[in-house]
Design a protein that fits this description.
single chain, 253 residues, alpha/beta, UDP-N-acetylmuramoyl-L-alanine:D-glutamate ligase, 11 helices, globular, kinase, magnesium ion binding, thiamine biosynthesis, ATP binding, ATP-binding
Length: 253
């Protein structure tokens, strides 16, 4: 585990431009702040060039995709590519509607994403593999998750991050598996959105597979060690623990 990345992110406090959905935007901002990033959100495409210039990394999330958000997301992707800033895509419920599917394909056809973070159903859809998705939830399927994530990484020349009970990550050359986690991560809406933003933050430190892998390890290990029984009490304790973790504490978990 590259624990030194945690110290680096706290020292550098990278700005992360998060174009995320309105359901979880506050949780995303607070989780970024907890790990040591400086979050900035936007709802207006006119300011995107300036905000991208401030950012160490950018992420776009289609969770509440609508027509007015399309320009915002497209502008962010274009500017991140133009300014050579790490860019992450969270294709929430990509297979739930033709509108989402078509828009995500437009993004992937026209812009380069350094990372894609998705659940099993979403990642399978990107790989063109049949899967029984259930809205924003992962659903069920028979595919090998390691092969699915590797296929997406190769197809889009990206770091593909498939999160779930276990996390699978690939850059097309190798597949890594993170086995930390907590069942409560699936009970609180928005933890995937939070992780996407946090991964983007670590890509601002080192833009590679190992940095994304560490972000997943950090997030899921802190979740695993959070002990509150009720989902909402657990979530508040989880945020506290993310905020308080440092390299020494992480090594002792």
């Amino acid at each position: 585990m590259k624990t030194e990345l945690l110290q680096k992110i706290k020292e550098t406090n990278p700005v992360v431009l998060s174009i995320t959905n309105f359901v979880t935007i506050a949780d995303v901002a607070n989780s970024l702040s907890a790990v040591g990033c400086s979050p900035i959100m936007s709802r207006d495409a006119r300011e995107i060039p300036e905000l991208v210039s401030l950012a160490g990394a950018c992420e776009v999330n289609i969770g509440t995709l609508n027509q007015s958000d399309e320009d915002l997301i497209l502008k962010t992707a274009a500017e991140a590519n133009r300014q050579k800033k790490p860019l992450l895509l969270d294709p929430v419920a990509v297979a739930a509607s033709a509108y989402r599917t078509d828009f995500v394909q437009k993004l992937l056809d026209n812009y380069h994403f350094d990372a894609i973070r998705a659940n099993a159903g979403e990642m399978a859809a990107l790989a063109g593999i049949a899967w029984q998705s259930k809205g924003v939830d992962a659903g069920e399927g028979d595919g090998d998750l390691g092969q699915i994530v590797e296929a997406v990484a190769k197809k889009y020349h990206t770091v593909a991050i498939l999160t779930g009970e276990k996390d699978y990550l690939s850059d097309g050359q190798q597949v890594l598996c993170n086995q930390y986690g907590s069942p409560k991560l699936t009970k609180y809406v928005g933890t995937g959105d939070m992780l996407s933003a946090i991964v983007a933050g670590f890509l601002a430190i080192e833009n590679d597979l190992e940095s994304a892998y560490f972000a997943c390890q950090l997030f899921s290990l802190v979740a695993e060690k959070t002990r509150s029984k009720g989902v909402f009490a657990w979530f508040n304790e989880f945020l506290d623990n993310l905020n308080e973790i440092d390299e020494e504490k992480l090594l002792n978990l």
